[in-house]
Design goal:
Number of domains: 2
Strand order of the largest sheet: 2-8-7-6-5-3-4
Radius of gyration: 22 Å
Oligomer: single chain
Helix content: 40-55%
Length: 411
Amino acid sequence: MNRISVMQNSSLKISPSLLNRWRHDTPGCSHRNHLNNAGAALMPQPVIAAIHNHINLEAEIGGYEAADAAEESIAESYSQIATLIGAKSRNIAMVENATVATSQALSAFSFQPGDVIVTTNVDYSSNQIMLLSLAERFGINIVRADDLPNGGVDPNSVDRLLKKHRPKLMLMSWIPTNSGLIQDAKAVGELCKTHGVPFVLDACQAIGQFPVDINEIPCDFLAATARKFLRGPRGIGFLYVSDDALDKDYRPLFPDTHGAAWTEPDEYELEPDARRFENWEFSYALLLGMGAAAKYANELNLKSAGKRAFELADMVRNKLREFPGVTIRDRGDHLCAIVSATVDGRNPDDLVQQLRKKKINTSAASRTAGVIDMRAKGADAILRISPHYYNTEEEIERLMEVLESLVAGSR
């Protein structure tokens, strides 16, 4: 309890006017206790307006014509997203989601039998499935680095594997989907840079949760989505492609007529920047929504806002530890605003549905979300609670009140 009191006297006690502004900007806050920001956060008004306005424009003048009319706003969206991670617009490709971003990055490599990809034990399931598919089709070898005793990839193990195998690339999820663990992306990126190994970083759960600067996290590709802590819409994401990767002419396996031009019967010419990884067809309304979400995040003090989200998550963990039969499943020395837990005798999916009936949003993850990590935790499924900076302490208390009654009912 002392720890909670200390936290409540620190940055959790933010300016009421600032918190009220965040919540006023977020219509969903008026009728829903939303603690599922690792799934899809509530969108603020500027994001909602950007999407609606463009859809309305498409309805009025036509889809192609609306895109042409929104040319300046589209360019501004690229700029805002680039600013969010310390990059330039030329480094940003718009894609459907982080998984597509990762697959586009992987497609830039020419694999041969015996090639090695180094990854971690907690990488996102879609990433692991893609690697297994590559192994099956091309005969590559997947090597997973060891974890530290407390959880998270061991940089020393990565160092040894990079020296031993000279891998084709290193792929890592910065934050897994089923845990609050923050892996040491900076250390891994620096090791990859030292050894000349391309680094593909899945930052799906990181973007919008805390400041990200690709100038401090060396990586060749970074995959992200709009719908999570960035507070954008579902169905859109982006891929960052470094200047170095562009200079080395990394290119997608299947460029289309947007990312390349068919110049002669047997020739094509790629776009010179990251847009070579884009496809012709995607939703400009969602693109503009993601741009508005990036602008909203850029205008925040994201370091302070992210710290608040972290502390709300710590508040959840501390209070859950007081519940008999509840086990916190987060591992690692550095934890973020994602809390994973299990309740003896209760199925997490059932808990999610029971909480939803009380207008409290959480989510659940099964073992297939992270087979190796879930096995290490001794869990078949977890309840995932993920607050954000616009949540309140009262909302955490309400969650605990309802959870307590549900846990008591299971005994």
